[in-house]
Amino acid sequence: MNNKNLGILAVVAAIMVLWAVVQSRLSDRSTVELSGPSYLIQGLDPAQIGRIVIGSGDSAVTIERRDQQFHVTDKAGYPADPKRINDLITKCLDIKTLESYTSNPRNHEDLDVTEEKARNAVKFLKADGSVLAGVVVGKALEDGQRTYVRLTSGDNVYLAESVPYIRTTAIDYVNQEIVSIEHADVNSVRITTPDGFYTLKAAQDGDGVVMGNLPEGKMLKDSDAKSVFRSLSSLRFDDVNTPSALGELSFDYLYVCRLHDSTEYRFRIARKDGKAYLTCEAEFTDKTPVTMKPGQVESEEELKKKEAKLQAQERAQRFTLRHRSWIYEIPEWKANYMTKPQADLLDDKPAPAPAETTVTPEGDGPSSPPAEAADPNVG
Fold first, then answer.
1. What is the CA radius of gyration of the chain?
2. Cα–chain-centroid distance for residue 232?
């Protein structure tokens, strides 16, 4: 082979090497392919969801469907809030991609779209554990408007716009409100502590609070008394567990709130290791049966009273059914009001001011008003 042919082969070989390098770099590079907006998840049937896993590893949150209701496994199986579950599903279904970014899995870690590095990762599974759909949300671009996302079932990474915030802790998926009662509906509150008990009642006029059997020489601290009286205006828990998981607790405090409609809420409170725990139940104390006499036409007002009574009975029953198997950890500041000793609500009455007296010099006799000065213009 002559030198000319060798030169041609050398040039061809160099071109092939260069092309291989270019191809290799192209395969590694995150190239953008416009594909038009489309929903990331398509065809998910919520009725088939048996389990939801949010996040990964030790911090993953698991929610399972049992008896047609979702329960948060990481909170002792406490019932999940249906609104939060629906919100999660809707947010995942609403993720809309703008364009395809890369299909090379070697780029996933840099884009934070691996399940371990992801900002959010959600998987919807059937009852048998097979995956229905899964979403991985990675890092956002500098503009903050676009985010890398992918399905857990594939390697394709997309740019999505305005990816919604997804809750990532187990407590986020339960309804933390225990009860919320308007203070105008409260008739009385009775607090029992290891030191005794006392009762606060709504004042007959205005929104004040009075204490029954107020000790002699004492006066009520109005602001603190109102805080105790209105403790149920918003009672929420920080954590929830079963009695067996928490072990021995001594419920030394009792907070009983009675409403004008005869509903009574009872809360037993325990203190341990700087935390406050609570159990609760409710009862409708008016045991008079609601009856309808055959052939008797009742006024609309009477019918409304009977309806309100039946509704109050049902609310009390539902409240007890929902809460009777659980122990709640409540904020310390809230527990302080619900367990406040009577002495902390009282001040000493101020001593009466001494009566004013007139002192006269000894032997001068009773004092008399000074004589009026003579008018120089008279006479």
1. 37
2. 15
